[in-house]
Amino acid sequence: xxxxxxxxxxxxGASLPPGARFCVRCGAPAVPSxxxxxxxxxxxxxxxxxxxxALSLRELLAVVxxxxxxxRQRLERADGVAREQAxxxxxxxxxxxxNLAIQIAQGRETIRITxxxxxxxxxxxxxxxxxxxxxxxxxxxxACGAPLHPGRRSEPRPLPPRRLAVAARTDRGVTRPVNExxxxxxxxTAGASRIGTLLVVADGMGGHQAGDVASSLAVATLKxxxxxxxxxxxxEDDQAWHxxxxxxxxEANRQVYAHARADAARRGMGTTLTxxxxxxxxxxxxxVGDSRAYLLNPAGIxxxxxxxxxxxxxxxxxxxxVDIGQLTPEQARVHPQRHMLxxxxxxxxxxxxxxxxxxxxxxxxxxxxxxxxxxxxxxSELARIVLEMPDEDLACERLIAxxxxxxxxxxxxxxxxxxxxxxxxx
Length: 426
What we know:
By secondary structure, this protein is of the alpha+beta class. 31% of the residues lie in helices and 23% in strands.
């Protein structure tokens, strides 16, 4: 039963307190999603249309066919290992084509896919004000301090002081002649005010076409754009942070795109970009490409007890094929086209930027890394090493050493930021 004049949950009908974004009974969003249909733009003017979580099989078929054509051209010009790689790619894509053709012949036009961003930390008691999950017995929301039990009139307890222990490392790897990755980790201020900690990983692309220039230019532009925006106004909520971060990433994209167009020697250069601004209680992230951000905690992240979750989504065609069940995660890790991005900085004048916010608690660890790490170290192994090594610098060094021991076929970058109680930091 809902009170007359009060808003009601669109799912279970429970009455909602003023300002609530999530239902206190079922945890559903208080306002139904009004997200528009989305489109993934691919090189060559192609696109894959996404609407209400469904993907067009015919459009995907055309994209996979173009991939077969690309690898057939490579096969005709290549020899040795490159020829074997092209043949393996054609074989894998041909199997996908057969599967898609069968589904279309059976009258199927679309297929459901997973959400644009992976699920975040889940807990049984959602806060009615900020939506953050909490332990069942919790009295106050750990993210915003709001009371979790209706009718309880008491002041929220202040959160214990916390500090962020940060380390960052980048390495050329074993086989690459140049390190095209750019990283940054440091305190971020606007005027005389401390904002928090800025973490950045950018993985440049283009080899001789100046991927290192693209990544360093993107990071420098990002820092300048963020400083300028924060000096103008401070974000009051998550949505404002998302808009600010997207604007800064768009400016970085414009600069990389303009430099690539202005210099023929750099035509086609680009970069991934994964950033996090960590304030007192939250991390605000923006992401383009296939570098990654993870959240780790030894006490568990999800309801299934997993100690890690990937916060970002890889913007690769192979990742989408995993989403719709055409490839397994194990196959994706070794797929010859796993590095083919459909979204990166510098390739188009305007890009789409993923953004999200994540509440942080003591014991949480943020890890940002380039694909040079996850190519050789799987997610569970990465989480175990970071959580078992209390020293962030040593954890970075261990991860990079392990990736190099297993081939080091790409540049390797990793940034680790661990939330600690203030008294635990020297």
